[in-house]
Amino acid sequence: MVKVVKGGLDEGNPNRYKFISGAVSDTRLMGVTAMHLVFEDQILPQQPLFHLFFYFDYEELGLETLRTLHSSDDKEIERGVRECFAGLGAQLVTIDEAEGYYYAKWMVDETKRKKQPLPSNIKEIQFILNQVCSAAIHEGEANSPATFEFTEKQLEMLNVKLCVLIKSDYGIVNYYLMRLFGKDNEGARLLVDRAADESKFDVIAPETHCTFLKNSISISESIGEHKIYRCESLVEVEAIAKHHYIVSEIEVYKRKVVGAKKISETEISLYEATLLLTREEYVSVYELDDDASWGDFSKSFADFSLGMTHTEHAGGRMFMDFMPNNNHAENKVFKLNDDIRALFYITGQGQLVVSAYTLNGIIQAEARLMLSDLGGMISATNHYQFPASIIYDFAESGFTDFNQYLRELE
């Protein structure tokens, strides 16, 4: 039965869909967030639920991805959720209707402000964009079905939901610098004490967007809860493809930044930057068993890799498995890639190459493979330990056999 709703089947009708649920990732301070909203069609209630998946980049791209799904199938929905939140190391936090509408509309408006293109399917959320969403108008006033007045207090609560609970001063310092170098000043301000003296803040980051590659922290001064941390940061200035080594002092009091002083900034060579980032890599090579089929392997690996991100390379496809959290941001020595749990690379000839940066990491990756359906289809042929990462060079080499690639290097 078709329900009579004002505005009818118009895709932009703000009365057509009923909000069912919403969730966001607590990864605002990493510079990206994801959101999942669920709606019911009030005109055609027999239709499957309408799922919206948003992926937002605070630093550069804005609303990078918008995926839609009409489904009531639990497995299909789970796949959509895992693909949306893949690699974020996020906990999902429940949001209410007003928060969902406001945040979706804010994502679109902010993307326009950044002068970035909106997703091609943006019309599918026109019913949200047609809602009246305005901040700080009348706190506590009831909302009509097509009007959501969003107060400053609600915005503050939404920001709390979007930000992970930071457990240490190291986390405060790393997140603060990460936001500065990413040209996300609003994100950095979330970590600054509201009563802080603005004159105590130097301009630390270069003028253009940087990738925050590494940060080493040491205590310069400590009096009770008042501490000054010396930071030695390696960043890549993307616009000029140069690496800079920046030394600063970040002043922290009661888990809030109260001052930031720039000590020095030096351009270093690619070779010097590589030395600072070099780390061991453990690699295991697997071959498909003679009695196993490529079709069965592909199907099982699709299930195994659900939630991983992947990229195409000259000789195959790389799957990146991330840590389930961003605890690496709490480390005294922060490294950008410390959130990678393992890499799984499938070559054009069907060889599976697995890598991790620690011995424990490769052991865990191998155990997960063997305990999955893949365990009965593949066998390990070689295990290696390298003083520096090699898997990306292999992926771009065009070789499809890792052992042959090593022989060529010799």
Topology summary:
Elements: E1 17-25, E2 32-41, E3 50-57, E4 62-70, H1 74-84, E5 92-94, H2 97-113, H3 126-129, E6 132-135, E7 147-150, H4 152-162, H5 169-181, H6 185-189, E8 210-223, E9 226-237, E10 242-253, E11 256-268, H7 270-277, E12 281-288, H8 294-304, E13 309-313, E14 316-322, E15 333-335, E16 340-347, E17 352-356, H9 359-371, E18 378-386, H10 391-397, H11 402-409
What does this structure look like?
The protein has 410 residues and is an alpha+beta fold. 26% of the residues lie in helices and 35% in strands. It contains 11 helices and 18 strands. A 6-stranded antiparallel sheet has the order 13-14-16-17-12-18. Residues 1-5 and 134-146 have low confidence and may be disordered.
Features:
410 residues, alpha+beta, 6-stranded antiparallel β-sheet, 11 helices, disordered N terminus
Radius of gyration: 24 Å
Structural class: alpha+beta
Strand neighbour order, sheet with most strands: 13-14-16-17-12-18
The low-confidence runs, each spanning 5 or more residues with pLDDT under 50, are 1-5, 134-146
Q: What letter string, H or E per element, gives the SSE order?
A: EEEEHEHHEEHHHEEEEHEHEEEEEHEHH
Overall, the morphology is flat
Mean pLDDT across the residues is 91
Instruction: Note the gap between the termini.
Output: 72 Å
Strand content: 25-35%
